Amino acid sequence: MRRILVAIFLAVSLLAAEPLFAQSPNLRFDGQSWWDHVRVLADDNMEGRETGSAGLRRAQAYVVEQLKKNGIEPAGSDGFYQPVKLVQRLVIEKNSSAALVRDSKSESLVPGDDFIFSSRSENSEKDLPASLVFIGYGLKIPEKNLDELAAQNLSGKIVVFINGSPSDIPAALASHYSTIGERWKSLRAAGAIGYIAVPNPASLDIPWSRISVNRAQPSMDLAGSEFD
Questions:
Q1: Long-range Cβ pairs for the range 144-153 (8 Å, 24+)
Q2: Structural domain span for residue 146
Q3: Would residue 115 count as lying in a domain?
Q4: Per-residue pLDDT tens over the stretch 114-140
Q5: Are the C-beta atoms of residues 112 and 119 closer than 8 Å to each other?
Q6: Tens digit of pLDDT for each residue in 18-55?
Q7: Do both 210 and 120 map to the same domain?
Q8: Which end of the chain, N or C, is less packed with Cβ atoms under 10 Å?
C-alpha cells in the first residue's frame, strides 16, 4: 500500500474555484492563482510526479497545504491521504523477443527501435497463437455512428490499430474513446485477445525517442483497473 494523494488536479481545480472564496470578498479567482498552482505542480522540481517519487511527495505536500489554507476538511482515511493498492509490472527486455513471420519468413524486431513491450497485461505462461487483423484506428464511437469493429471477425484475434483518431472526430470524443481502457473494452467485447498499437508520428504527444528511452520503466496501475 502506498500513500497517494487522491486527485491532485481535482484539488487544484477546487482551489481555483469561485465557491471556495465566496465568504472572502478579497479573494477572487482571476486566473493568476490557478496558473500559479499549475506552475508549481508542473515545475521540474516535481520530477514529473512519478508514482512513489520524491517529486510526487512534494506535490502532495503542496496540495495538502493549499487545501488546509482554504479550510477544506480532510476526507481520507489518513487525513488528506488515502491508501491505494498498486500493481507493478516490469518487462525483462533481455529475456523478451519479437519477430514478424509471413510466408514462413521471419524478421526479428529490435526492442526500443522497432517496438516496445507493454507491461500492462495479465501474467500468463501459455502460448497464444493468433492471427493479426488490422482495424485502422479501431474505434467505436456511438455519438458519431463510427464502428470500425462491426465488419471485422475479431474472435480469437490480435488486433493491430493506429493510435489516434480520424480528423473529423471532435477532440473531446477522440480523447475519451482513444484511451487504451476504452479501446480495450470494445475490442474485448468483440472477441479480441490482444492488441498491437502503432504510434502515429503525425500525432505523437511524446516523441518516439523519449518513449523508447523510458521503455524499461515499470508500469504501475491501480489494482483491478481496466488495463488488467
A1: 144/169, 144/170, 144/173, 149/186, 149/187, 149/190, 152/190, 153/191
A2: 93-222
A3: yes
A4: 887 766 655 555 667 788 899 999 899
A5: no
A6: 444 444 455 566 778 888 999 999 999 898 888 788 99
A7: yes
A8: N
Burial class (CB in 10 A: 0-12, 13-18, 19+), 154: buried
pTM to 2 decimal places: 0.55
Residue 171 contacts residue 133 (beta carbons within 8 Å): no
Task: For the chain, give the secondary structure using H, E and C.
Answer: CEEEECCHHHHHHHHHCHHHHCCCCCCCCCCHHHHHHHHHHCCHHHHHHCCCCHHHHHHHHHHHHHHHHCCCCCCECEECEEEECEEEECCCHHHCCCEEEECCEEEECCECCCECCCCCCCCCCCCCCCCEEECCCCCEEHHHCEECCCCCCCCCCEEEEECCCCCCCCHHHHHHHCCHHHHHHHHHHCCCCEEEEECCHHHCCCCHHHHHHCCCCCEEEECCCCCC
Residue 132 within any structural domain of the chain: yes
Residues 112 and 218 in one domain: yes
Number of alpha carbons in the 13 Å side-chain half-sphere of residue 221 = 16
Domain CATH number, residue 100: 3.50.30
